[in-house]
């Protein structure tokens, strides 16, 4: 909203959070106001002379006249208010604040002094809730003296919107004149308030009016962003920023907000294109690359995600989260060697991070010597002793090392905790099967199946135990179910081949061919697990 003699100013609030402030610019930049203490003609002439000097930019002349006037009219709120205006024009905010405070003390009904003091407090309040509350109190005091004051109503509405008091904000907006309510800042406020109140259709209508306003700018859009985010209205954020971009190219930060809104709406390809533009606008920025890596990862474009992360690592080599994310994605691609190198880099940068130690422990357990995982898993367990994931990871590492006694100790602990119980019982069943303890194996695997009935690995393992114990009917049920869930499951296809061979099933030859295909694929995956990738200088992965 444009108030005569003022303009809207915005400043960055960290993660793309900006706020609208009315600050002192232009000639009649503050509320002059007249004190009720002295209304004689000489006093009025003195005030007029000071105003003229201020408007002409002659601040020293205005100060000289004020010093003379205050000798004749001491403790005068109107003169102190004018002195505050001179101080703020000279960037002496602390002195101006004292003058405005003195003006209020000497003339408690001087509305202009309340507005001027509130503007200073508002500009410096940032995210300080106490300061915002104090500023709101100043505006509310001004409104008790002048209920229709446009600036006080508008800024009170702004502060209330920031505080999440959306209906109270709308109440202040309702006090504005019709032409004021049609201004872009007020339309944005209404959109934010209606969205905050969960009034979807009202927010949509307000957004349409906001978007249609020819004065709409990126600053206006960013002002209401926090409320729209809290209301989870990514659709409105996308609409508004798309409208701004169609009129004026968005800034790098605006493009990022636009792209994140598209991502939140599930529009991954447009989001990626928008964030690519944000990165192109500032190639030294790491944040858009991290956003792009996340979107590529969600779209299962793991190679693309690695390219973005590799470039981000070049730009920010001390950020431990970047090699960690790189290592996680490498693991998804079964690039175990490359994953391990990246996770080791993350731990060098942040050795006491439990997540990084756990990740490296899990990846190391997949290598040729699973026991190399133990120091990292121990570090994780020391940092988070109650985390069931650590217990399970220990058990799996010992299992892969064929140390079944130690594996059983950790797996038994993990089996008592709900998040890890199913998988722990699965591995305990595999250990029992390796020891030919078939009743125990069946009992463990049945518990795993009960907890997770649609897991192909559990069904395949249980099916193979039934084959070994000649319970072919149950074996067929479990193995066919496993293949239905995962047609390339190695254990399930091998189990079916064994079953058909033992029962002279005519499908044996066909299953042998099918198992050969699955085995070839498994062998290729094993080779890929040890493969490392090189990253081209531009950050794009090169095979």
Please estimate the helix content.
over 70%
Supply the CATH architecture of the domain at 454-543.
Alpha Horseshoe
Shape field: elongated
- CATH top-level class of the domain at 454-543: Mainly Alpha
What Rg, in angstroms, do the CA atoms define?
35 Å
**Which fold name corresponds to the CATH topology of the domain at 454-543?**
Serine Threonine Protein Phosphatase 5, Tetratricopeptide repeat
Structural class given helices, strands, pairing?
A: mainly alpha
pLDDT averaged residue by residue = 89
Low-confidence stretches: 1-29, 529-543
Largest sheet, if any?
2 strands, antiparallel
| E-strand count | 4
What do these coordinates show?
The model is unreliable at 1-29 and 529-543 (pLDDT under 50). The protein has 543 residues and is mainly alpha-helical. The protein is built from 30 helices and 4 strands. It has a domain at 454-543: Alpha Horseshoe (Serine Threonine Protein Phosphatase 5, Tetratricopeptide repeat), CATH 1.25.40. 71% of the residues lie in helices and 3% in strands. The chain has helices spanning 41-55, 59-72, 77-89, 93-106, 111-125, 129-145, 150-162, 166-173, 178-181, 184-196, 200-212, 218-223, 225-230, 234-247, 252-264, 268-281, 287-298, 302-315, 321-332, 336-349, 354-364, 374-383, 388-400, 404-415, 418-434, 438-451, 456-468, 472-485, 490-502, 508-530; strands at 7-12, 18-23, 534-535, 541-542. Helix 15 (252-264) packs antiparallel against helix 16, helix 24 runs antiparallel to helix 25 (418-434) and helix 28 runs antiparallel to helix 29.
